[in-house]
Amino acid sequence: MDKELKAYRDKLFTDLYTNVIPDRVPIQDTFTLEYFIEYAGKDLLEAQYTIDKALFDEIIPPVMEFARGDSLSLASARNAPGLMFQRSITNVMGKTGTIQHPEVSVLPEDEYDKYIESPYDYSLAVLDRRKNLGYDEDPVTAAMNRLKYVFSQMDDSAAVAYGNAKLVEDYSLFSGPKGCGGRQPVPLDTLADMNRGFSNITKDIKRCPQKVLDAIEALMPYCIYKGRTKVHPLSANSTMTHMAAFLRTSEFEKFYWDSFCKLVHISAETGQHQLMFCEHDWTRFVDHMQDLPQGTRIFMEYGDPKYFKDKLGKNCVLGGFYPLTLLKNGTKEQCVDKAKELLDIMAPGGNYYFRTDKSTIGAGDLNVENYTAVMDYVLENTKYPNAGEPVTTVPREDTIRKGLAEGYPEFKSKYIVSFDDYIKQFPPVDERVTELMRARYEKYSRMAEAYFN
Q1: Cβ(235)–Cβ(181) under 8 Å?
Q2: Alpha helix (H) residue ranges in 91-208
Q3: Spatial CA neighbour of 22 closest among 350, 375, 355
Q4: At what angle do helices 198-207 and 209-227 cross, to 10 degrees?
């Protein structure tokens, strides 16, 4: 590790995330695990069944020979062995190894009321078996399939963690704190994406809007619960938005934004930040986004960069907009000119990091010469003359709406039992081991929950 380079990159992102103008514009690379696999000349289909430490030792060096970014985080390529045991119908692998999300509806309209009664419990008991046919077996076979999935996921996660640690250690990249932040579900996306389905939810909003609103309200305690993650100034809860851009503005306000914005403020009150990916074009919703807490991190796919910068640049950390397709299809001059245009708009005043509008998935998604030309330009031409100054003098605390969580009941599930309730059935043999039992019970309960949501 180059300790000086690592410290420099760490400070770039620390400043970016704590309302300070950094030395220059930080760069977030967007290469996925699939890209690493294909660029190294591996067959994606075969490699996804052999993800281990040895694979990362082979696939990381070729990409890092030309990578220029300050930060890069790998995620699993969807755990192919796990899908085998789940027999998932919501994540389906094609012959090339690419995993698709077909349009699926596992929640019939006449089951809305059962779902609303307890969305989490109904999902575990009923809907998961419809999504994963390996779980819709006799109890023993279903338990064995789930256990095999958990084992495969543990191996997969350990290998990916090794790969990310290797990136930090060997290439001196910035990496956020381990064990902090998490996934922030959005009520309407949770209801739509893998339960009602895209087509059905757009119909439901018109035919039975109250059912949809009731389901959103029923999901809020669970979404609040999932958002209560370990806090660190450099961490964030991540949200991949989906349905928003496909809704009319009035529908967005009623069915999407009201609940989601509350969740962001509820997390912010605990000290947590939010990282939002705004899928497609959110230009219509920029005024709504002005209500987000200061320091909210957003990266956009499409839209007018100047409009977003003018409206949100002082309050939110912004990224995205640079078209990945241009890096693939454009000339070197066109690619650099686009970077100049975007940086002239987005860089002034800080609160901006450079990244493409989409992640680089296949080896054919990128012309490496174009990429290096653009990144070299960013590295050499984005120094701030006023580095170290605050982006805004408005305190973050003054931008957070307080007490919103009090309007919702505490999340409860018959499948999530507290230690104090559990020991009523299985009491300690001696009080000396009570707290030791509690520590282990809570540790393994949290681990189990990660595979049941």
Answers
A1: yes
A2: 112-117, 119-122, 128-131, 139-171, 187-191, 198-207
A3: 350
A4: 120
* The model scores a pTM over 0.85: yes
Chain segment 145-198, per-residue pLDDT in tens: 999 999 999 999 999 999 999 999 999 999 989 889 999 999 999 999 889 999
Q: Which CATH architecture has domain 178-415?
A: Alpha-Beta Barrel (3.20)
- Nearest residue to 360 via CA among 374, 350, 346, 347: 374
Query: H helices within 252-367, ranges in order?
Result: 258-269, 286-289, 305-312, 324-329, 332-346
Give the tens place of pLDDT for each residue, 256-308: 999 999 999 999 999 999 999 999 999 999 999 999 999 999 999 999 999 99
**Residue (of 122, 78, 120, 70) closest to 99 by Cα position:** 78
Domain limits, the chain: 178-415, 417-453
Distance CA(332)–CA(286), nearest Å, equals 32
Provide the total of helices (H) and of strands (E) in the chain, helices listed first.
21, 7
